[in-house]
Design brief:
mainly alpha; 0% strand
Length: 222
Amino acid sequence: MQLAEIQPIPETWAARVIERLHLLYGSKFMQQWDGIDKATMVKAWAEQLAGFTGDEVSAGLAACGNRPFAPTLPEFKRLCRPWLEPEVAFRMAVTGMQGRRAGEIGAWPHPAVYWAAVEIGNHDMLNQSWQTLKSRWEAAYSIQLARQSWDEIPAPAAALPAPGRATATKEQADAGIKAMAAAAIEKPRDPKAWAKKILANPKGRSPTVVAMARRALEERAA
């Protein structure tokens, strides 16, 4: 994932955000910008919120509904993107790694969260507390956030079957064979397309079908 040139949000958005915060906090909010004209203030907010989505800005405003003090601009950005806070990102990463252990891609608000978790290591992320990993996490996460590009988050390894369930049922095997046949028909130029498709999204497939796909690709590479 590479950062494209980030554009400021529309100034109309920024103006509405400022109006909402003014309504919520009154003069306490505007006092932070005392002596700065409205146009300059709007431009500053538009530039500082560059790259933020409408949903993120809405989340920031919603968070202000329970906040007694008017946020500064940096504080508002963190309300829009809670994962910028190291501890919040850490807890999201733990949940994401738990999902990957179960064979799911995991919910990752930003690639930096995933790659910081990889730097710490799956074992420590799932077995150590925030207090234990705080310093290591903050260092790893800071480095990741400072990058300009990130590799794509890879698909997870297939989850291990439960004891006694390593063999696919006849129904699972039949379904897997049908999926292989359908995929092969879709892309006849690549006889291994079915295997690539299965390994790209192994969730929900039986271990036997996944193993068959993996063996097929290994045979081609040999």
